[in-house]
Every structure is written in C-alpha cells, then in structure tokens.
Amino acid sequence: MLSRTADHLYWMSRYTERAENIARFLDVNLRMSLMPVELGEGQTDPVVTHGWQATLAITGLEDAFQSAGHELRPERVLEYMVFDRNNPSSIYSCLRAARENAHAVRGTITADMWETTNATWLKFRDYPREQLQGTAVAELFDWVKFRSHLTRGVAAGTLLRDEAWHFMRIGTFIERADSTARFLDVNYQILEDGVATPSVEAEYYQWSALLMSVSALEMYRKVFSDKVSPSRAADLLVFNQRMPRSLASCMREVYQNLCKIKNNRSQDAQRRAGGMSAALEFGRIEDVMEEGMHEYLTGFINSLADLGLCINNDYLSLN
Amino acid sequence: MLSEPIYDEMHDEAGLVRQHYGKYERWLQATDPSRIAQKRVEADRVFNRAGITFSVYGESDGKERLIPFDLIPRIIPGKEWKQLEKGLKQRVLALNLFLHDIYHRQKILRDGVVPDEYIIGNAQYRPEMRDVDVPGGVYAHIAGIDIVRAGDEYYVLEDNLRVPSGVSYMLENRRLMMRLFPELFSSNRIAPVEHYPDLLLSSLRAVHPVGVVDPTVVVLTPGAYNSAYFEHAFLAHNMGVDLVEGKDLFVENETVFKRTIHGPKRVDVIYRRVDDDFLDPLVFRSDSMLGVPGLMSAYRAGRVTLANAIGTGVADDKSIYPFVPDIIRYYLSEEPILNNVPTYQCRKPEDLAYTLEHLPELVVKETHGAGGYGMLVGPTSTQAEIEAFRSRLKANPNAYIAQPTLALSACPTFVENGVAPRHIDLRPFVLSSGKSSTMVPGGLTRVALKEGSLVVNSSQGGGTKDTWVVEGAC
Q1: A313 vs B: CB within 8 A
Q2: Is B398 a member of any domain?
Q3: Which of A35, A306, B250, B338 is 20 to 30 Å from B471 at the Cα level?
Q4: What is the rounded CA–CA span in Å between residue B166 and residue B162?
Q5: How far, in whole angstroms, is CA B390 from its chain's centroid?
Q6: In this structure, what CATH number is given to the domain that contains residue B360?
Q7: How far apart are the first and last CA of chain A?
Q8: Does any CB of chain A come closer than 8 Å to the CB of residue B237?
Q9: d(CA A168, nearest CA chain B) in Å
Q10: Which residues contact B87 (CB under 8 A, 6 or more apart)?
Q11: Would you list the domain boundaries of chain A?
C-alpha cells in the first residue's frame, strides 16, 4: 500500500473517532450542568464551570478560545466545539477532515465506506445550527456517536482485512486511548485540585455521568455490582481488557494491528506498542493511585504521542 | 445539414415511436409521473452521497457540482451499433498507425498526405517522442471519440486521444438506472457495460514493458482537486490498483517506483490522467508539481509504459481532423466507415474567406480548444458575439476551423415542464492494446439541457443519460 494512502486512512479513522469523543465530552458536561446544586443568586457551579474549561483544555484549546474573545459560557463553548470551522478540533472540522481524508483514498476504501463518511459530512454541514439548544443538542451528540458507530460498522462489514484495515484500526484506537486518558485525567483533576469538595451525591453524579459518556455505566455495574467510586471507575477505564474504551483494550488493538503490518523499519513501533500494552495488562490500579493519577496519565499520553511519531516515521512519511 | 429537420431519437417523422424505443415508451406511458419524480429525487441523493461530482474551473466557491442525470435513456439499435463499433475501431487503429509513423519515419508526410507544417509546427507534437518505441505500437490506449447524429447519419465530431474522461459516468449512470428501474432491464435486452474496468485493466497489462512478467499498473491523478478526480478514483478502485499522485512515485536507474509502507515497489504501467505538460518537470513544464522527475527517461528507456503515450495530442488536434479520412485510406487501404463533418481550415485563405462570410451559420472552433470553451456557435450567437469572434479569427486564422452547424439529433428529456427533446451526442471509448481493440457497447451520452443549445459539455450546463444498445432491435 502507498504510504500516502496509509496516512489518509489513519487520519480518516482518527478524525472520525475524535468527532465522536468530542461529542462524548460535551455530552457529559451537558449532563453535569443539569445536576441539582444549591447555589446562591448569580453563582455558577464550580464543578460545571471547571468541566467546560476542561473540555477546552482536553483539546488544548483554552488559549485559542480566550484569544478569540469568547466568554466561558456553556452556549459559547458548545458553539465553538461543535460548529466553529476555525477551530481545528470542533466536530465540524473533524468530520470535514475525516471526509477529506476519505476522499483522497476513495479508490482504496469500499463505496459503502466512502458514502457513509461523505453522507455524514454533508448532513452535518447542512445542520441548521440555530436549532442547537435544549434537547436538540443531546440529539445531535447522539447522532454524531451513531454515525461514528456506523462508519466503523460499515468498515468492519465491507473491508478486506488487509493493510488498509489495520491502519484504520490503529488510527481508531490510538485516538480512543488518547481520548479516554484525557477524559479520566480531567475528571480526576476535579477531585485532586479540590476545585470543590463534592458531596457524596455530587461525586456519584459526576462519575456516573462520566461512565455513561463512555458507554461504561452498565459495564461498571456488571463488573463491580457496587456503587460508583472514582478508583473503580479508573480501574475499569485503564486496566479492564474487556472494556472497549479502556486504555488496556485500545493498546492491545494497536499492538495487534501493528504486528500485522511489520516492515523492516518498524521494530521500534512494535516494541513501544507492545510495551504499553503489556504494562496495561499486568498493571494494578493501586500502583497508579500511589504514583498519582495525573502523573500516570500524563506519562501515558506522552508515550502515546511518541508512538504516533514512530508510526509516522516508519510507515507514513514519504521519505 | 442545417436545413434538415432535427432527428428525434424516439419518434419518426410521422410522430410514431421508433421500434427500438417501443417497449420503453409503453413503460413510460404506463408509469405514474409521481413515481418518476420521486426517482429523480432519489437519483440526486444517490449521486450526492456517492460524491459523483465534478468541479468547474474558474468557479471560485470550489464546490463540487453534480452533473445532471436524465432518467430517459438514449437507445441505439444493435445493428446501428455494430456499424459504429467497426467504424470506431477502424478510426482508432489508423490514428495509432499515424502516431507511430509521425514519430518514426514520417512516411505520410513524405507522401504528401498530411502537410509537414501541420505536424512539425504543432505545439502538440513532442520531438521527445521521436524514435521512441512504445509496446505494441499503441499510442492511444484509451480513445474517446465524440459522435453525433444528424439526419440519418452518424458523424465523428472530435477524436479525444489524450486523457479522455467520462467513462465513470457511463458506468454510474447504468448502475443507477438498474437500481431505480430494475424492471426495465428484465424486459429489454440491454447490452451490459459493467465489465469496462476489467477490459481496461487487461489492455493496460497487455502493454507492459519488455521482460515484465506480472505487471504492476497504477492510475496517476493530479489529485483530489482535479475536476475528474472522481473518475480517477473510480477506475483505480474498480481495477483494484493504486491511485497515485506524482509525489507517490520516483525514478531511480530509469525505473519507476511507488512509495509504499514496505518501501519502494516497481511500477510498470501508468494509466496517467495528467496532461503531457505536467508529467515530468525535468523535460516539460519545470514548475509542475504533479509529475514525476525523471519519468521521461524511464519511459524512453522502455522501462515503463504510459497510457496514453506522450504526444498523442497531435493526432486529435482539430487541424488534423480534416485529414483523418485520408489517414484511414493511407494506412488501412479501406474506405472510412464513419463520416467526418465537412471542415473549413481557416489557415487556408479560401476557407477563411468562406468562414468569415458565413459566420452566423457556422460553428467555429479553436484547433487546440476543448470542453466547449473558445468556440462560436453561429446560429445561437448574438451579432455582437459574432463580431467579437470575427476579430479574434482574423487575428489568428491558423488557430481555427469551421464547420456547418449540425442539426444534432434530439432525445426526449425531463425538463421543468414535462418531457421535451434536447440535443445529444455520444462518447464511446475504444481500448487498444496492440493487436486488438475492444469496446463496451454504447458510451456516454451527453445532453444539452438548455432548449435549443448544441453544447453538451458538463462545464457548460450539459447533463448525461444512460446509453442502451438494445440487442435484437430493428
């Protein structure tokens, strides 16, 4: 396969996954802002404010948002993260980038695959944005998630299991691992920074909203049959091999797909991915807690970025 | 030809339905118009979602547009098609022999059949191709010959031997028609066209360089922003070969390689959809970012095949067009099967004089023009347009030819208020690979959607139709 083709496939999947994850981030914030809190007149809930701020921080957009002169209000953040075409991480930009990458390789992917990605973009582009309020917002996020499910499903159902498939899978799971790690990090920071001393109920709502946003609340109940606690939620999202958005299962996918596309330059990429996957397979949440969640996740995100560079050098760059 | 009544593809002079349209017409009469209207909406949706679009040069919004698709097919009786097919293969065979000759011994020039200055002074003639031997002696591997019907006769309007496009629309139109109206395909015996990509791949593989056993074929595109990108991707996809851009290829030791995730891999046959000028910045336009430096050296060394060959433009140039019947006679010792349109060569003083005198009734074209740009259609132009064109023509007569305005045949077409006849043409595709040439029955039918318009180009508001060759009719 052409290196350029592999590059487009990889980024096509990453952007598709990213659009979904942004929708998930925004969705959890929206849910949290619906939580009942007792506030004085004119006060805003510090947890909620922190959540919106964190959404921007996750995508590295805090400064860009502020320098564009926006005010930190939910509608503004939503508008910025959903529709702003100058924001490279908005859902709009992600779906457009996914479509453009697909367009560049439409000769390689199946017609079903291309048409799904193209139709998603066309529909989103023409979405009447003045309607973005109330329940329509949640519906839009659901739609984005479903289109992402559909895109992966169409790929799974129609693509030959060749190199193209493996590159798409690698893109999907690198992006998802990155997103889960950032997600968890932000929510832990709310605890660790002592932004607020949440009540027992507030903590319960925060973490169940988080689990729900990564489709993990039901799984949590099945795995633990107990009340929601931050450390168990972290255990689920970091180490559980059977949880499809956990770091462990994402990294196993990345490693296994990388092994299928070995070339004579790629030992380093395989070694790194294998190392990360093994550490997640045999790690324990207690050790992570001892090290500090934030330190652990920062380390993970950095290693993942290094792996991405390594894949780029070994397969994708043209030189 | 102008004075003749317009030939209606569906109805004869008495207004009766022609035999080969009989079944279709009965179906159309029996079908609820609201169902057809609904199918038209579905057709647009399918094309939009599939991104079967083209971009128009010079339109600043950069948006891709749909080529309007008309649901009423153009039907050609099998017997007429047989004759067309023979004529098309004959014509392309002669043009390939002509190209080989003018890049080798130039017998035809020495025998005075085509004047020297038409070739040597022609910007499309590539001296770099002198004495280069191409596999099978094939230059135009893929030829798109534009055919029109006027009265009872078919005429060749134009030969396209460089990078003719449109075949993907032919295939998508068929796919869509089968999806929308499957019942039509079980009741009519319509010759299939879907195997075109297989034929294309076989003919590309057949012209591999000497000594290659299992040739690797790629399609070379200028990129995703090219107006015909959809087609490039479509063909690569349906042949199962890589769609490459110039930057995906490089040349080392006169051999072309593609950059893959497993390192360089040799490429043997390039179906290139990039114009000559942009193919190799070391030989042609040095500012080209679309080409591959050194490609020409590998090509001249016989280490890679380009389809089409470099320098085919000299044979489809409109200044050569008037000579094609003689070219056929010269190389094949046969009479041409297909008609040429009588042509005035404005470089000849007497032809120029005639043309200037009769501008309101003629079609005047640039010899290097394409896509319906830079031409004058006398009968549909205003006095001011004619006068403006007259001064351009006088300033540079060598650059123009003139032809009588043909009464192009018309085919019933869905328009705003129901069904009305609109002018059509036909672009069939001839695939050549040395000893043999192949075609799928039919081609791309283009239709001028504006009432009375004779310009069918998609860049000028033309649409397309599915083209049926109906076996056993007539």
Answers
A1: no
A2: yes
A3: B338
A4: 13
A5: 28
A6: 3.30.1490.270
A7: 15
A8: yes
A9: 14
A10: B154, B336, B337, B338
A11: 3-316
Are the beta carbons of B268 and B215 closer than 8 angstroms? yes
User: A160 at the B interface (CB within 8 A)?
Assistant: no
- Model ipTM? 0.77
Closest CA to A151 of A137, A172, A131: A172
Residue B468's SS3 state is strand
How many residues does the structure list for chain A?
319
Q: Do B50 and A111 touch (CB under 8 A)?
A: yes
* Paired sense of beta strands B153-160 and B339-340, if any: parallel
Burial class (CB within 10 angstroms; exposed 0-12, middle 13-18, buried 19+) of B16: exposed
Among B45, B172, B239, which residue's Cα sits nearest to residue B444?
B172
Report the number of distinct structural domains present in chain B.
Answer: 1
Q: Residue A100: its chain B contacts at CB < 8 A?
A: 224
pLDDT in tens, A36-93: 555 555 566 666 677 777 778 777 787 888 888 887 777 788 889 999 998 998 999 9
Beta-carbon separation of B245 and A108 below 8 A: no
Query: What letters, b where the CB count within 10 A reaches 16 and e where it falls short, cover B45-67?
Result: ebbbebbbbbbeeeeeeeebeeb
Across A271-286, average pLDDT: 95
Model confidence over B291-332: pLDDT tens digits? 999 999 999 999 999 999 999 999 998 889 999 999 999 999
| Domain annotation covers residue B346 | yes
For B376, the domain range is 342-405
Closest CA of chain B from A302, distance in Å: 25
Contacts of B32 (CB under 8 A, 6+ apart): none
Query: How far is residue A57's CA from residue A83's CA, in Å, rounded to a whole number?
Result: 18
| Sign of the C-alpha dihedral computed for residues B307, B312, B318 and B323 taken in this order | negative
Asked if the structure places residue B392 within a domain, the reply is yes
Contact B336, B173 (CB under 8 A): no
User: Cβ distance A300 to B300 under 8 Å?
Assistant: no
Q: Under DSSP, is residue A281 helix (H, G, I), strand (E, B) or coil?
A: helix
For residue A67, the SS3 value is helix
Q: Across the interface, which of A3, A111, A163 has its CB nearest the CB of B259?
A: A3
Give just the sign of the alpha carbon dihedral A299, A301, A305, A308.
Answer: positive
pLDDT band at B60 (very low <50, low <70, confident <90, very high): very low
Contact B237 A111 (CB under 8 A): yes
Query: Does B193 reside within a domain?
Result: no
How does pLDDT run across B380-402, given as a tens digit for each residue? 889 999 999 999 999 999 889 99
Q: Which of A269, A271, A258, A281 is nearest to A307 (CA)?
A: A269
Whether the CB-CB separation of A172 and A17 falls below 8 Å is answered with yes
